[in-house]
Amino acid sequence: MNRTVVVLTALLALAPGVAAGPFTAHAELPPPGTPCSFALSPPHVVPSPDGDVVTATVAPAGCMGPFSPRLSVVCIQRSDTTPQCSQGRGSGTTQVFTPHAPGATYTSTGRGLGAVFNDASEPNWQLLGPVTAVL
Question: What pLDDT, on a 0 to 100 scale, did the predictor assign at position 60?
Fold first, then answer.
């Protein structure tokens, strides 16, 4: 009986290192209190077929342990308009666009959520921004 307890204790002591091994090659560690890390881009101008637009993105940058990116939201707002937002799911980059008005001030904000299961989102949103630019 004692030998079983010692073996189980040793296995449990080694398990975190073994379990963490495959998950250590991420871009960066998440901030404290959140299981996943996300990156927000500053507002910037890009060409489009209908004229220049301002865009911002939120992209996953790494997760701890069994967590993976589930939801991301990115918003961009010109100082004199309501925000334009876009939501994405999974590990892809989420992007939003708004018309460009030269000389206007734009602010990007976002948030990202990591979870273990698709149907169970933990309340661990990473809040991003605001990032402001005059374009």
Answer: 96
Per-residue DSSP letters for 17-43?
HHHHGGG--SSSPPPTT-SEEEEEPPP
Query: Which contiguous run of DSSP H or E holds residue 7?
Result: helix 2-20
Residues 36 and 14: their CA atoms lie apart, in Å, by 24
**Hey, is 93 helix, strand or coil?**
coil
Note whether 50 and 72 are within 8 A (CB).
no
Burial of 121 (0-12, 13-18, 19+ CB in 10 A): middle
Listed in sequence order, the residues at least 6 apart from 129 whose beta carbon sits closer than 8 Å to its beta carbon are 40, 107, 108, 109, 110
Give residue-wise pLDDT tens across range 28-54.
566 777 789 999 999 999 999 999 999
Q: Whole-prediction pTM value? A: 0.75
Give, as one character, the DSSP assignment of residue 125.
Answer: P
